[in-house]
Specification:
Elements lengths: L9 E7 L7 E3 L30 E10 L2 E14 L6 E6 L6 E6 L15 E8 L4 E5 L6 E4 L7 E9 L12 E4 L9 E2 L8 E4 L11 E7 L5 E6 L3 E4 L7 E10 L2 E2 L6 E4 L9 E4 L7 E4 L11 E8 L12 E5 L3 E4 L7 E10 L2 E2 L6 E4 L9 E2 L8 E4 L8 E8 L6 E6 L3 E4 L7 E10 L2 E2 L6 E4 L9 E3 L12 E4 L11 E8 L7 E5 L2 E2 L2 E2 L2 E4 L7 E10 L2 E2 L6 E4 L6 E6 L10 E6 L7 E8 L2 E8 L3 E4 L7 E10 L2 E2 L9 E2 L6 E6 L10 E6 L9 E8 L5 E6 L7 E4 L7 E9 L19 E2 L6 E7 L7 E7 L7 E9 L5 E6 L4 E5 L5 E10 L2 E2 L3 E6 L7 E5 L4 E5 L8 E6 L5 E5 L5 E4 L7 E11 L5 E5 L3 E4 L7 E8 L4 E6 L10 E9 L5 E5 ...
């Protein structure tokens, strides 16, 4: 401040602000002899210096003071000024993106002046880019972060922040912060040039922006690893040391000092395949026109898409001569080259290809094809039985030939190789064999395709002695036919045919020739039948074999004689005027030739049953079976030689016998209303009868004829069906022989039986039903009248369990009856028809009458319906209650019940109810009778509403609710019953309000709380909720260690109570209020935490509570924790007053540390600067009367530099040390000459020199002499100082007042 100075005037300046109300006095130009003198002296200007604070408003008053009368002054001037805000510090940039970042900073005011009265109202952030643009944003208040979102991607920015009051009052700029916005996403890389086997060149578009730190990172990913190349400053690069034939996925990412941009889309490129090893050439399916090429894949990856195969025809052995090249794209490691010229030399090479291009060609390989196919050989001369001679045409490119042969096929079982000529003889063959011979040309490429087979045969050998036989017995040609048999000649099977020759032995000069082919219908034939011979003659026979090579030698002769002739036309008939049941007559025609006699045979089913020899031409056969079928044959006999038997004669039967003792009876089983059994006997056995003709004659009506076929040899009965019920019948029987193979024969008709009646038929379709109008009390019967003859219908019925037996007779033609019954009973009805003296089978039907239905009434409650009814008539087994609306259900009730209460219903709900009485009917099913469906409504609920748990502790639950809905209240509510459970903490209270607190509960326990409405005369409805009490307080909370800013706290586990929840952690809180705080401690085994950032030298009340899902439990009792003191402030080292020797003393002055007043004393430590190991210390008692403390360190060494520090102490321990100050004592020590009392002298305390080793500090030899003499004087001086200081301090206080 500057002002105009008045003459001989002192000035007083008062500077006042809200938190400090500071006063400053300014002296005149020359120092006055008043108490207002201070140093340094000021003229007409002054500076507040460190006494004012930044960013605060001040009221400034300037007074002129009369030097002779200081109390006389006038107010000269008044100013209202404000100091500038401090520049923000610690400016940082975070959350950097492509187009925004976040700037944060801290305020620079010291914490002790942070009183909330700053003048700054906002902050201004300036950010300037490296492309010349600059922007400024202002915060809406004193928030210390700002989002900057109008920046350019990939750009460098310089940021500063100022504290701002208005456009005139603002702070200096903060320190500079720099950043760069993150680059944007780059484009996918492209392939800038052709790839090689180990490198790929890439390029991409640059990202927008001009950050000076911009680089690019290229990353690539093959199948087995990932790599990258960083720090690329251009937009092109080449990636080296890659694997051939491998596909790579590339991405590009822009990077600068601000961070890494978004990675580009990927691009896939491949390296060119490496050189393929020389291919391996080998023979293929066709040696003459095909080469099998195989190769190994090139070194490197698997990204080969196909291979380029090249081959060419060499005009000579030089594979490098000019050729024509053929290209094929293939995708495997093997290929067969087809369509080549036989006997030629070819060169081959191969190269791999993929999407990147074609790799280097392999070394060349060469191969020569085999010769072409030969023409078939030809036969050069006649064959023998063991050899064949052949010749052939030359083949181009052949160096030798191979001949192969095999009997009957071209499989080349035998070989003759390395033939240099164009002909050869194949010997060592089998006679009589057909051979197929092939020819193959051979060179260095292998053997060419064999020629088509040429067929040649060896000559056959002679046939062995043939045999001759007559045909089989059933051929019918033994008298005119012979069969010749022979074996094939030795050797092969190459016989074309055989020559068979025969002639009469009596005519040797006459020969007949017959050729027989050996293969007929695919079967070898070594026999032949010769026909049209003369019966009984002798013949000579011989055989020869032939094939394409010639005819073999003749066999030896064989001999044969034919059989005699056979009789014909045998006839079988019944004799005239004789017993035709046991006799038949046989006759025949005489054959040609000489005959001695005949053998006659009779057959039954081809089995001979009669044989007789006679010279006549007929025979009468006797003792035959009645009704049997017979046939006959005849054989001629001449000189003991039997000819062939004649064909069998015609078929003829004997007649069957007549049945006897016919009777007619009712069957023992079956339907006696429609069936009668006929019985009879037969006079003789055995006999052949397969059918009986049975005739029944009714009392009235037409006869009934039945043909009965029987497999039984002796049938004695037959059951006749479909007769008229109640009718009288008689019967006769006639036997019939079989008719298969011959006409049937019939016996005479038997005598007539006695009469027999069928039983009458029962009624049909009997149905018993309940009357539609009275099903409980009336049953009805319906039936159909039976067929046949009858008189009356008799009906009997009885009921159970409590009905009488009843009966009724109705006319034969009636079909309906109605009877009265008792409800709920089972009834059995029996119906019988009478015809003459016979009764029909009874027809029975059982049914039950329906149970009578109950009549029901009901009384309604909120959750109940009380039903009642009367017992119905008759018999019932129980009741079934059916609810047709609401929650559908069925309820079974016992037979003796007359009431039922339905519970757990919904309030104010309609229920439609039907009550059934029921019995078990005859089918085992339940049969019901229903009451009239009736709808009843339950009363509305009067339970309390909106039940809510408002709070819980470890021992209490507070709950509130609202009264019931107005329309549900039945009468005046007298209160509410509040009850709670479980059993180990249950109870109840009657309250007259809509809220209450339940006490005396167990901690950490689940309780169900129920609240019900109460009236004067009854209890209303209730509702309920669930609540969990909190954990009990932790026990034994103690503080274990403290520092100036921390307190260690430990505790033990609280009581788990009911175990409803587990402890999730702990909530630790502390006070006093101006530095209170809390923290949550996770659940662990240590049960310990450290409270940090506390104020030094303060007392704190510490509380601990357990946490669970029920909330924070009750806190523990307060535990006192004390932080250690902070560092003593404003420490000064000065020369002591003149009463002390400046060579041996130091005056120490300090202010108490920040924080509370809980300081016991101070520890003053000092040591010579040249040896820190000798530390002396002393304790100074703390005084709460004054902020400034002083003491004098005595008995020091002159002209020595000492270091001094001070520590405050309280019950928590020793606090932080002050700053270490240095002070050098003066030269030679002097004796005290006078005493002067100074301000705050009561705080001066004498000290003794003590080191950590219990030794006196090192001093000079001269000073040590003085120390011994001054020891006693020092004790006296210390005591005097204490007394003087106390008195001086008291007078000073009185003066200031």
């Amino acid at each position: 401040m500057v002002w105009d100075e008045a003459d001989n005037t002192n000035y007083k300046i008062e500077v006042k602000d809200a938190p400090h109300d500071a006063h400053y006095r300014v002296p005149p130009t020359s120092p006055p002899a008043t108490d207002y003198v201070s140093t340094p002296y000021y003229t007409n200007s002054t500076t507040a210096g460190n006494s004012v604070q930044p960013d605060l408003g001040y009221d400034i008053y300037l007074f002129a003071i009369n030097p002779s009368n200081p109390s006389d002054y006038n107010k000269a001037s008044y100013l209202k000024l404000a100091t500038m805000p401090p520049a923000p510090s610690n400016v940082q940039v975070s959350d950097i993106k492509t187009n925004q970042f976040v700037v944060s900073w801290t305020h620079s005011n010291p914490s002790e002046y942070n009183c909330g009265c700053h003048l700054a109202v906002a902050y201004q952030v300036t950010y300037t880019s490296n492309i010349g643009t600059s922007f400024m944003k202002q915060t809406p208040g004193l928030q210390q972060t700002l989002i900057v979102d109008d920046v350019t991607t990939n750009t460098d920015y310089v940021i500063t922040v100022v504290s701002w009051k208005n456009d005139v009052i603002f702070s200096d700029n903060s320190s500079v912060a720099t950043t760069a916005t993150i680059p944007s996403k780059t484009t996918a890389p492209t392939n800038s040039s052709s790839a090689t086997t180990t490198s790929i060149s890439l390029q991409w578009d640059p990202v927008p922006g001009r950050s000076t730190s911009l680089t690019y990172t290229v990353a690539w990913l093959p199948a087995d690893s990932a790599e990258s190349k960083t720090g690329i400053t251009d937009t092109t690069t080449t990636i080296y040391e890659l694997t051939p034939s491998t596909e790579y996925v590339f991405t590009v990412t822009a990077v600068n000092d601000g961070g890494t941009g978004v990675t580009s889309d990927s691009a896939t490129y491949s390296t060119v395949p490496d050189m393929v090893p020389a291919p391996i050439l080998s023979s293929s399916t066709n040696l003459s026109t095909m080469i099998d090429v195989s190769w190994n894949k090139p070194a490197g990856g698997d990204d080969v898409t196909d291979y380029l195969l090249e081959w060419w025809l060499s005009n000579s052995e030089d594979v490098n001569s000019d050729t024509e090249i053929h290209l094929h794209e293939i995708d495997s490691y093997n290929y067969v080259i087809d369509g080549l010229t036989p006997g030629k030399r070819y060169g081959v090479k191969i190269s791999a290809r993929n999407s990147a291009g074609t790799g280097q060609s392999s070394p060349e390989s060469s191969y020569t094809t085999a010769p072409g196919k030969s023409n078939p050989p030809t036969n050069t001369s006649s064959s023998t039985t063991t050899s064949i001679s052949i010749a052939w045409d030359p083949v181009d490119g052949a160096t030798s030939y191979t001949v192969a042969w095999s009997p009957h096929s071209d499989d080349g079982s035998f070989h003759k190789a390395n033939i240099r000529d164009l002909d050869t003889t194949v010997d060592g063959l089998t006679p009589n064999t057909l051979y197929v011979i092939t020819l193959s040309a051979v060179n260095s490429g292998g053997s060419g395709a064999p020629s088509n087979g040429a067929t040649f045969s060896t000559v056959p050998q002679y046939v062995g002695l043939p045999s001759v036989s007559a045909p089989s017995e059933d051929s019918g040609s033994r008298s005119t036919t012979m069969t010749v048999h022979w074996s094939k000649p030795n050797g092969g099977d190459d016989v074309i045919d055989y020559v068979v020759e025969w002639w009469l032995s009596s005519e040797n000069n006459s020969t007949s020739t017959y050729h027989v082919e050996p293969h007929l219908s695919g079967v070898e034939q070594y026999n032949s039948s010769i026909e049209s011979l003369t019966p009984g003659e002798r013949y000579d026979v011989r055989v020869r074999a032939r094939n394409s090579a010639g005819t073999g030698e003749t066999s030896s002769n064989a001999y044969h004689r034919t059989d005699p002739a056979t009789p014909f036309h045998p006839i079988l008939t019944q004799p005239v005027d004789d017993d035709i049941t046991t006799r038949l007559l046989i006759s025949w025609s005489v054959p040609e030739g000489k005959l001695d006699s005949y053998e006659v045979n009779l057959y039954v089913q081809d089995v001979p049953v009669f044989t007789h020899t006679t010279s006549y031409k007929s025979v009468l056969a006797d003792s035959l079976i009645p009704g049997e079928m017979y046939r006959a044959s005849v054989t001629a006999i001449s000189e003991g030689l039997f000819g062939a038997a004649s064909d069998k004669s015609n078929v003829q039967r004997t007649d069957p016998p007549t049945p006897m003792k016919v009777s007619l009876i009712q069957p023992s089983s079956g339907d006696i209303t429609k069936q009668l059994e006929v019985k009879w006997g037969m006079p003789v056995t055995p006999f052949q009868v397969t059918k009986y003709i049975i005739t029944l004659k009714p009392f009235s009506g037409m006869d009934i004829t039945i043909q009965y076929s029987s497999d039984d040899a002796t049938p004695i009965s037959y059951l006749v069906d479909n007769l008229v019920p109640g009718e009288s019948y008689s019967a006769t029987v006639q036997a019939v022989s079989p008719s298969d193979g011959a006409p049937a024969t019939f016996s005479e008709t038997s005598a007539t039986s006695f009469n027999q009646r069928t039983a009458p038929a029962p009624v049909t379709n009997l149905a018993v039903s309940q009357n539609m109008n009275k099903p409980e009390y009336q049953l009805e019967l319906n039936w159909l009248s039976p067929a046949g003859v009858g008189n009356v219908v008799m009906i009997q019925y009885h009921g159970t369990p409590n009905a009488m037996n009843e009966s009724a007779n109705v006319n034969f033609f009636d079909t309906f009856l109605s009877v009265s019954v008792i409800p709920g009973n089972n009834y059995t009805f029996t119906v019988i028809v009478q015809s003459g003296e016979m009764l029909s089978e009874p027809v029975m039907e059982t049914i039950n009458s329906k149970p009578a239905w109950p009549k029901m009434a009901a009384e309604s409650e909120i959750y109940e319906l009380a039903l009642n009814w009367d017992l119905p008539d008759g018999n019932i087994e129980g009741y079934l209650l059916e609810i047709l609306s609401g929650n559908f259900m069925n309820i079974e009730l016992p037979v003796n019940s007359t009431s039922y209460t339905m519970t757990k219903l919904s309030p104010e709900t309609n229920y439609t109810i039907v009550l059934y009485s029921w019995i078990t009917n005859i089918s085992g099913d339940i049969e019901k009778s229903a009451s009239i469906p009736t709808t009843y409504q339950t009363l509305p609920s009067d339970k309390p509403t909106s039940i809510m748990v408002t709070s819980t502790t470890s021992a209490t639950i507070s709950v509130s609710w609202s009264p019931p809905a107005p329309g549900s209240i039945r009468s005046a509510i007298v209160g509410y019953l509040v009850s709670w459970s479980p059993s180990h903490g249950c109870g109840s209270n009657m309250v007259d309000s809509t809220s209450t607190q339940i006490t005396g509960l167990m901690p950490n326990t689940v309780y169900k709380v129920t609240i019900s409405t109460r009236y004067e005369d009854k209890a209303g409805d209730f509702d309920e909720t669930t609540a969990i009490t909190c954990f009990a307080p932790p026990t034994t909370v103690t503080t274990t260690d403290s520092s100036a800013s921390t307190i260690d706290v430990s505790w033990t586990t609280p009581d788990v109570g009911g175990g409803a929840t587990k402890c999730d952690g702990y909530f630790v809180s502390w006070s006093p209020a101006h530095n209170a705080g809390y923290k949550e401690v996770a659940m662990n085994s240590t049960l310990y935490t450290k409270i940090a950032e506390l104020q030094s030298n303060m007392r704190y009340n510490i509380l601990v509570s357990a946490q669970s899902r029920a909330g924070n439990g009750m806190p523990s009792s307060p535990t006192l924790g004390i932080t250690a003191p902070g560092s003593p402030r404003k420490v000064k080292l000065n020369k002591a007053d003149e009463v002390y020797d400046p060579a041996s003393t130091i005056q120490v002055e300090w202010n108490k540390p920040d924080g509370g007043d809980d300081i016991d004393n101070y520890l003053v430590e000092w040591w010579p600067s040249f040896n820190q190991s000798f530390v002396s210390f002393a304790s100074v008692i703390h005084s709460n009367d004054d902020n400034v403390h002083k003491c004098i360190i005595i008995d020091l060494t002159g002209e020595t530099t000492y270091k001094v520090q001070i520590k405050a102490q309280n019950s928590a321990g020793t606090g932080l040390p002050s700053v270490i100050l240095s002070y050098k004592t003066e030269g030679n020590a002097t004796f005290i000459t006078k005493s002067r009392i100074s301000r705050s002298a009561s705080q001066f305390v004498p000290f003794e020199d003590k080191s950590q080793h219990g030794e006196i500090l090192n001093a000079s030899s001269e000073q040590q002499k003085h120390l011994i003499g001054f020891a006693v004087i020092g004790v006296v001086i210390c005591a005097a100082i204490v007394i003087i200081f106390v008195g001086s301090h008291y007078r000073q206080q009185q003066k200031e007042k």
